[in-house]
Amino acid sequence: MAQPRPATSLPFTLTPPYCWEKSLYALVKPVVTPRFALSCTTKLLDHLGEIAKNNDLHIQSHISETKAEVNLVHELFPDYKSYTDVYLKHNLLTNKALQRHAGRPQGPEA
Ligand SMILES: [Zn+2]
């Protein structure tokens, strides 16, 4: 069975003071950006969700762009009800999240 191939290793650990708290960067806000579910392991998704939640950050990602992508997400994340569920269970689908290119939502995702 194919395995998710993370685009990056586990990210850094955030420790205060954060760069965005300095007045010099008042107009710049960080956004947690997993490329899409297939580029992340569940461990990485957990870590990114924790960073977003613990720091009240916005999130952006991509979801359900093609039928092939949706099918592969179902194959690689069999314990989740849907593509949306993958992000939801990792705290990456919040009122501060933007999911782009959702061209193939299915079931409850539609
Ligand atoms: Zn996209």
UniProtKB/TrEMBL annotation:
Gene3D superfamilies listed in its UniProt record: Metal-dependent hydrolases
Cofactor: Zn(2+)
Alphabetized GO MF terms: guanine deaminase activity; zinc ion binding
The keyword Zinc belongs to this UniProt entry's keyword annotation: yes
InterPro entries: Amidohydro-rel, Metal_Hydrolase, Metallo-dep_hydrolases
GO cellular component: cytosol
Occurrences of domain Amidohydrolase-related (ranges): 27-97
Domain of life: Eukaryota
Entry's Gene Ontology BP terms: guanine metabolic process
Keywords, in A-Z order: Hydrolase, Metal-binding, Zinc
Name of the protein this chain belongs to: Amidohydrolase-related domain-containing protein
Organism: Albula glossodonta (roundjaw bonefish)
